[in-house]
């Protein structure tokens, strides 16, 4: 079995046009994989592409995870069972609007500089690839599997120009038994193509763009004519952006089905395509990334990553799906296509509150071993990846009718309390957080709840000190730094440790407990979050992601396989002191503007 890349793609010496769709196994639960994969085939696709996030598979250094949602081999096999080829993009940097671009947090403690030849970084990559790539190797097309080709790094031309760095990755990949063709992907601009390609090492260059196929491919044609005359190469858009991702507080990004289909048709007239995204899915837990620039500031991505792609977040086809299927059929690029799988989410009955407890009252069981230090520590110094850190002064602060409290050098979202009474909230800022306070008695302690809203996933700030979360400096009362702090780590991957036997108090962060009882097999559903403030939700112990009433999403998706027949426990952690008395459900996603 042979997959060749010459003037075009060849499978067993027969030319083929790859019609691929991006579908991230880690952004949808395993129970939904088959529906999404089948629907890619039903649209006319013959290939599925996925990134591979390092932080999912090695969450702590030397501790590897390939189970359930991280079971990449099972996903690859399921794609093969659905008649699809596979393209893999293992990074190790993936961008993908994913937390820290896919890097595990612990690299901030163990390396000097990611995306470089730093020996500590390259050793960490080597250790990871030595585990990951042998799991992929048996699924290569050359071994009878569906995997056609594998990417080297990711859009490196928009970041660096170190060809030795790329060669090191190529050598590492080959040493781990990968013998299928390799490729790079870069923006359709000659400087990016020049800096990011590894053509001299036999690696195929592909492009990323969302419009103007003729002009974009001309950039590659012109580069090849100037630097590799006579070289045979195919044309492929490895990321055709059929829409875009969303940020908090902004209307959802939309792209019409008609425009998308027209632009896709133009790509297919010239070469192959990978739709980014075919199925966007969900940023479960705290895995959303963030973008940052001096001009636009810091903008974390939202939980829903549906991307306005051909499949909705719950893997059902939409108008864009139909328009693209029509284009593929009109161009004679698909045989008889199966009908898509369509599921119907349920609007379950409203459930009342079962119990509630304030964060401060359940700390002894939720974080029973706080770390004490003379100065505040960062999340990384606490060996904590994601979530929240609660800082609390060990001793009372100085009594004063008027005082100023300043938090130095933190870009997290911060909530300030005095003896558990809220004082002020600040979002991302490069400036110190400074506010006037009154300290009426001599027994007042400071509490600061710091939320890691997502590390930057793209651009030059990937290597910035901004990537370190929590409080990087200190906390001052007037001119003096306050010494000695307790650190309560709140990673909140699960709600384990929450004690609902303790008291609830108004205007404080709190946990709310609900029970959803199902008398038959579960269906997908959506939780109404429009009036719930801000926080995260756990369904049967699984963190389905962040919510925030500023939108654009006014519901949160719950895949059916997170539920079960019988009793289901749903716990909401809300940080703004907004009381929650009931949980409502919807049979569809609801976004700002009523869409």
UniProtKB/TrEMBL annotation:
Substrates-to-products reaction catalysed: Hydrolysis of terminal non-reducing beta-D-galactose residues in beta-D-galactosides
E.C. number: 3.2.1.23
Gene3D superfamilies: Galactose-binding domain-like, Glycosidases
Domain Glycoside hydrolase 35 catalytic: 8-329
Alphabetized PROSITE patterns for the sequence: GLYCOSYL_HYDROL_F35 (PS01182)
Residues covered by the Beta-galactosidase galactose-binding domain: 509-568
Xref: SUPFAM superfamilies: (Trans)glycosidases (SSF51445), Galactose-binding domain-like (SSF49785)
Keywords, comma-separated and alphabetical: Glycosidase, Hydrolase
Highest taxon of source: Bacteria
GO molecular function terms attached to this record: beta-galactosidase activity
Catalytic residues of the enzyme: 155, 239
Beta-galactosidase 1-like first all-beta domain segment(s): 376-490
PANTHER family xrefs: BETA-GALACTOSIDASE RELATED (PTHR23421)
Family: Belongs to the glycosyl hydrolase 35 family.
Protein name, as recorded: Beta-galactosidase
Source organism per UniProt: Schleiferilactobacillus shenzhenensis LY-73
The encoding gene: bgaB
């Amino acid at each position: 079995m042979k997959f060749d890349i010459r003037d075009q793609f060849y499978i067993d010496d027969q030319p083929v046009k790859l019609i691929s769709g991006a579908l991230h196994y880690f952004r949808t639960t395993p129970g939904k994989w088959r529906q999404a994969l089948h629907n890619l085939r039903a649209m006319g696709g013959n290939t599925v592409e996925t990134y591979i996030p390092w932080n999912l598979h090695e969450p702590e250094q030397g501790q590897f995870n390939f189970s359930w949602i991280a079971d990449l081999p099972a996903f690859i096999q399921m794609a093969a069972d659905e008649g699809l080829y596979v393209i893999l993009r293992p990074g190790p940097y993936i961008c993908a609007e994913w937390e820290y671009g896919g890097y595990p947090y612990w690299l901030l403690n163990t390396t000097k500089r990611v995306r470089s030849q730093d020996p500590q970084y390259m050793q960490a990559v080597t250790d990871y690839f030595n585990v990951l790539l042998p799991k992929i190797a048996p699924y290569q097309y050359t071994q009878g599997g569906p995997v056609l080709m594998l990417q080297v790094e990711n859009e490196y031309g928009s970041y660096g120009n170190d060809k030795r760095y790329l060669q090191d990755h190529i050598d590492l990949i080959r040493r781990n038994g990968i013998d299928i063709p390799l490729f790079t992907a870069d923006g359709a601009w000659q400087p990016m193509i020049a800096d990011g390609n590894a053509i001299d090492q036999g690696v195929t260059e592909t492009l990323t763009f969302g419009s103007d196929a003729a002009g974009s491919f001309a950039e590659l044609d012109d580069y090849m004519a100037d630097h590799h005359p006579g070289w045979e190469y195919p044309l492929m858009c490895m990321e055709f952006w059929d829409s875009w991702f969303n940020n908090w507080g902004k209307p959802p990004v939309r792209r019409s089905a008609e425009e998308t289909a027209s632009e896709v048709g133009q790509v297919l007239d010239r070469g192959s395509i990978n739709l980014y995204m075919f199925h966007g899915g969900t940023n479960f837990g705290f895995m959303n990334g963030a973008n940052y620039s001096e001009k636009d500031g810091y903008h974390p991505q939202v939980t829903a990553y549906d991307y306005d792609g051909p499949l909705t977040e719950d893997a059902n086809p939409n108008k864009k799906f139909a328009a693209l299927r029509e284009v593929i059929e009109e161009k004679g690029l698909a045989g008889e296509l199966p009908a898509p799988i369509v599921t119907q989410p349920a609007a379950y009955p409203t459930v009342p509150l079962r119990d509630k407890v304030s964060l401060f009252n359940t700390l002894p069981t939720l974080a029973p071993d706080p770390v004490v230090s003379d100065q505040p520590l960062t999340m990384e110094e606490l060996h904590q990846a994601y979530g929240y850190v609660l800082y609390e002064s060990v001793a009372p602060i100085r009594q004063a009718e008027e005082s100023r409290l300043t938090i130095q050098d933190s870009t997290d979202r911060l909530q300030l309390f005095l003896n558990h009474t809220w004082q002020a909230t600040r979002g991302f800022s490069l400036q110190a957080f400074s506010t006037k306070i009154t300290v009426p008695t001599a027994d007042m302690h400071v509490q600061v709840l710091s939320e890691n809203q997502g590390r930057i996933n793209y651009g030059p700030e990937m290597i910035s000190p901004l990537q370190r979360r929590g409080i990087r400096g200190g906390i001052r009362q007037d001119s003096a730094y306050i010494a000695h702090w307790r650190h309560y780590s709140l990673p909140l991957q699960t709600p384990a440790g929450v004690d609902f036997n303790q008291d609830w108090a108004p205007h404080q962060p709190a946990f709310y407990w609900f029970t959803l009882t199902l008398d038959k097999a579960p269906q997908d559903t959506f939780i109404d979050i429009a009036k719930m403030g801000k926080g995260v939700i756990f369904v049967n112990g699984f963190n389905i992601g962040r919510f925030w009433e500023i939108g654009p999403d006014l519901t949160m998706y719950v895949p059916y396989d997170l539920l079960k027949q019988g009793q289901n426990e749903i716990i909401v952690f809300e940080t703004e002191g907004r009381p929650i008395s009931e949980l409502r459900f919807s049979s569809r996603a609801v976004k700002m503007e009523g869409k």
